């Protein structure tokens, strides 16, 4: 049944209109508002231990629409994460727009191949089954909607934790309630999700972590 439903969900999601963005983000203003962000996302290689040890995601170069959508999901509880929800709740709509604009403007600027290499046969089979490129793009860096993330080159251990979170529906502080990704992730074992995460994380992409300035 899942195999029949997921393609339909993907097609439906790809047809959804982009959420209205009446508030324009200012990258310069965002660069002055990211004090709460750089404590974790401004340290290269920084790890968090919740819900298990993994690197915090790279934000610079990520789509502003996705960053805004993610912060709203943390604020609403669609994404369960105590510290991220507290942080997101403290932000005004203009703050979210400014931070999203700032991080979108600070990617590597590196050219990314139009099509990702297939990787191992196991990874290629899992990508085909999941239909990842239908929404994230053939190179995993050009999603079809600005509210979908670029995932090429993202930390593999973070991707693995995020994918598992879409399968988690019975924990008060862990999980992500998103029907499309939930349906896709549910098809796979955790071992298969790790193969997917390792493959996507190995791809060249635009994402990076900008090291925060040293405290003098």
Question: How would you portray this structure in words?
Answer:
This protein is mainly alpha-helical and 216 residues long. The protein has one domain (2-16, 24-201): Cytochrome Bc1 Complex, Chain D, domain 2 (Orthogonal Bundle). The protein is 48% helix and 4% strand. It is built from 11 helices and 4 strands. The strands form 2 sheets. It has a two-stranded antiparallel ribbon with strand order 1-2. The protein has a two-stranded antiparallel sheet with strand order 3-4. A hairpin with a 5-residue loop joins strand 1 and strand 2 (54-55). Helix 4 runs antiparallel to helix 6 (93-104). The longest helix has 14 residues, at 2-15. It is globular. It starts with a helix and ends in a 15-residue tail after the last helix. Mean pLDDT is 90; it is low at 1-20.
Keywords:
disordered N terminus, 48% helix, 4 strands, mainly alpha
Offer a concise description of the structure:
With 216 residues, the protein is mainly α. Helices cover 48% and strands 4% of the residues. The chain has a single domain, classed as Cytochrome c-like domain (Cytochrome Bc1 Complex, Chain D, domain 2, Orthogonal Bundle).
Write the layout of secondary structure elements.
Layout: H1 2-15, H2 27-31, H3 35-41, E1 47-48, E2 54-55, H4 64-76, E3 79-80, H5 82-89, H6 93-104, H7 121-130, H8 133-136, H9 156-167, E4 175-176, H10 179-185, H11 190-201
Antiparallel strand pairs: 1-2, 3-4
């Amino acid at each position: 049944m899942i195999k029949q439903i997921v393609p339909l969900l993907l097609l439906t999601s790809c047809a959804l209109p982009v959420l209205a963005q009446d508030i324009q983000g200012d990258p310069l203003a965002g660069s002055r508002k990211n004090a709460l962000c750089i404590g974790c996302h401004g340290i290269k290689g920084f790890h968090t231990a919740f819900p298990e040890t993994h690197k915090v995601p790279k934000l610079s170069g990520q789509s502003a629409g996705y960053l805004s959508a993610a912060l709203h999901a943390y604020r609403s509880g669609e994404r369960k994460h105590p510290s991220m929800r507290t942080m997101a709740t403290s932000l005004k709509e203009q703050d979210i727009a400014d931070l999203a604009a700032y991080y979108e403007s600070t990617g590597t600027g590196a050219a990314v191949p139009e099509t990702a290499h297939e990787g191992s046969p196991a990874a290629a089979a899992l990508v085909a089954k999941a239909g990842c490129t239908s929404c994230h793009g053939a190179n995993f860096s050009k999603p079809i909607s600005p509210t979908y993330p670029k995932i090429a080159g993202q930390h593999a251990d973070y991707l693995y934790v995020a994918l598992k979170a879409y399968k988690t529906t019975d924990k008060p502080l862990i999980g992500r309630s998103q029907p499309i990704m939930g349906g896709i992730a549910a098809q796979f074992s955790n071992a298969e999700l790790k193969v997917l995460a390792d493959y996507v994380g190995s791809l060249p992409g635009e994402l990076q972590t900008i090291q925060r300035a040293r405290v003098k």
